[in-house]
């Protein structure tokens, strides 16, 4: 490949991957991205028509004009970052039309670097990392080629050159078209340097002190909009998000396998007005850290003393809204944040609250993912105890969890019919739950109007999603004087085979019911048909791929996006301990993650990987050898071995060899043809036609002329089969 | 070049010289801004991009160092450039590395007072020696010290220029400018064609023996006598046809401003006159306040005269009797035509 073409392709790649880092943020529409993409892809090849004498001043005027408009627009909208990004995209697109000298190329790389910087601000997702990988490779290659280009430009105008600027330009143009400038040694050096840049970047990234104003802050990310966890939820809004595969949280059991389905309770809602659920439990108390660093919900015994306590580490994605709801399995006992000795320097950054409904929330930096450990009591409440619990609810429970808006007569009748024969509250709850499961159909697409959607669901449509089922059960129980509440959370999840955790997606959003039993507390009931929930958790054929992507995404968030001083200290101390040969890994996050890395490395199929790499290396070596053979293939330096014109010319050359006409090293193909023609005028036409066809093909890229094979036959027939005057081998001269 | 940079370049205390290219300055400033932004915001992806820019800078420094290792440069050949005119010098750079090639190498002699355009090499394979041409341009005549031979590279990213100075010593003698002369600047034509003059020149008769100078005809070397004296000597022939011209250069600073410049113009005029007359085949000598070149002819005399004029100082003397030393020297050859060149 000609040097100039290779350099321009590397430049196109650099610009486009920089744009990809920006574009994959989702912040920019096609109206911004497509013109930039077209300009970056085509601009570097369209520089010839632009004469610098008029184009450079014109582009300068254009840049100033657009810059002025951009500044005015930014001042009016106050979106300075967006304005700066758009203007830098414009400048880069303009610059691509003037890529002539090494300096022009370097300027375009600086602009591309600015795009990546902007992408670092607007795109914290894994797509940024995915774009950075090829960007680093292409930028390194492009910079090295630019360095080479600078040398070529200097050589074309170095002392000894004659003919002035015009001759210099011609020399430069010829040098840039050379195909032998980028030698294997150069490419090998490029690969080595790219690897070096990667490794040194990583070292700097992990070791550069995370100080300054972002002292303990984790990287902010765009919060997920998950309705259902604010203080007011319109009936029907929560359950309809069940199609979205975006992961909301990842749950890793401290013991036992990470398998689903998991039920992660979020918040309960108590007040229903016929169309909307509300949370009216306004009294919140701040949870205090105990001596063990845990936040206990009740001053009971240590949660770890509860038999069979369920301990789960939760990685909760940023979610919109504040205070943020903390998720845990039903019957949560305590929460724990990862130990962070440095947090003492910024007290009150994270504050945990529990309300009288037992829901836990926290305040802290917005749009930041959090990691916590939830302790919960997995033991189900004893059925006989619930049957015997009676109806003596506390007053605050009755006040909060019994009121209802007026219900249609049909709904009341349904409640009465379901209550017939139920001896106690528990049996009633079971009957209502079973009736809804068996008699109503799960559907995400049903519509129930705005007037009385629940009556429509219960009496007419009889189709709905989990929110309708849960609301219906609450209403039916409350009509019978049973305190009940709806609970929003997540149920299901997909176990991730790479990350050893269960990923709960927005599609796993779920509503269920908690019923109060005096003296025992709240028990969970789920009236949604189980078959529908099983269907949601069904795995797809590409689960392996999606698991790998999600595990990579989690690693990206934890180790890149959310890397902070705390992790840095843990990381370094773990490194220090490793160097000292300490007692394995402790409890700090860094050490633990080291252990994870070590375990993951052990799981890597090294043998298969090695064989794969060997196979790739062998394939690459084969391609190199093939290319070298082609280069050494005689006259066909520029043509593929199977090219018909080349084959025709090779036949002619063999015939000329037999006739005693071998091409001298200093002789061109045309000169050889003229020499043959002078000796054999009868072959002159055919020999020169075939030679011309070969030269046109090799250097002009033209197709084979019609009748080429016939002309080759003519030439072979007209040439003697041995040099003139030489006797046929094996015979005596006559 | 600032004083500090000048000091660093000349000093042997700093074996490597590092300077930013224009693009390198931009990259450095962008990196500093990026670092500040990363520290200020705590944005880890900005840290990541900042790390990339730091990695590019560090790799650039490390590779440029390794790119220069194992390279050698041939000694600078003797040259006699003229002030104001570029002189091309051939330098050979040799790679003594066993394995890795070197890329984007530039080489030039480090000479005081010279503008240099380096010899450039796109790559040097292990063990390879390649010759390149560099160009030196001196703004004024004189004798300049050769401080060393510079090998430099901007490999791999063109952000920095790293250079090393290989030890080399010597001087470069820069001749004065030579101009084309107008007719009125030339001395009148000589008298007495074919007259034998007691001067060395291009005649047929033997005149004497002297040491061999660069530019002498090798066929005039007296081999037996050279062997006896252990240095080459040539025979000179008596000049025929014209009287010698002795150029009297008054290299004293005249009163008033711009004296040094006027002396320089006078030196250039003397050089131009001498070259013109010598190219005509005439016998030319030069006398100045500080010394003289005895009359002679031919290419060797051109070199002798220009070498002499290259180092003539501008003397501060009191006006009366400034020309006395010159007149005293001229008195030894009253037959010679004297062309006075005054500032």
- Helical amount of chain B: 25-40%
Using DSSP, what is the number of strands of chain A? 20
The most extensive interface between chains reads: A-B, 60 and 50 residues
Helix content of chain A: 40-55%
Broad structural category of chain B: alpha+beta
Description of the structure:
The complex is a heterodimer of chains A (734) and B (343). Chain A has 734 residues and is α+β, with helices and mostly antiparallel strands. Chain A is built from 23 helices and 20 strands. In chain A, the strands form 5 sheets. Chain A has a 7-stranded antiparallel sheet, covered by helices on one side. Chain A has a 4-stranded antiparallel sheet with strand order 3-16-19-20. Chain A starts with a helix and ends in a 16-residue tail after the last helix. In chain B, a hairpin with a 3-residue loop joins β14 and β15. Chain B is elongated and about 90 Å long. About 2% of the residues of chain B have low confidence.
Topology:
The complex is a heterodimer of chains A (734) and B (343).
Chain A: H1 3-23, H2 30-42, H3 52-77, H4 80-95, H5 102-122, H6 126-156, H7 164-176, H8 184-207, E1 232-234, E2 247-253, E3 262-269, E4 271-272, E5 276-278, E6 284-286, E7 294-296, E8 310-316, E9 324-325, E10 332-336, E11 351-355, E12 360-363, E13 370-376, H9 383-387, H10 395-401, H11 409-419, H12 425-439, E14 441-442, H13 453-461, E15 463-464, H14 466-479, E16 484-492, E17 494-496, E18 501-505, E19 509-517, E20 521-525, H15 530-536, H16 543-561, H17 565-580, H18 589-603, H19 606-631, H20 644-658, H21 669-679, H22 681-700, H23 708-718
Chain B: H1 3-10, E1 16-20, H2 22-41, H3 44-68, E2 71-73, E3 87-95, E4 102-111, E5 114-117, E6 119-124, E7 129-138, E8 142-153, E9 160-167, E10 171-174, E11 196-211, H4 223-229, E12 233-240, E13 245-249, H5 259-279, E14 284-288, E15 292-296, H6 298-310, H7 324-330, E16 337-341
Parallel strand pairs in B: 13-14, 13-16
Antiparallel strand pairs in B: 1-9, 2-3, 3-7, 4-6, 4-8, 5-7, 8-9, 8-10, 11-12, 14-15
Helix pairs in contact in B: 2-3, 5-6
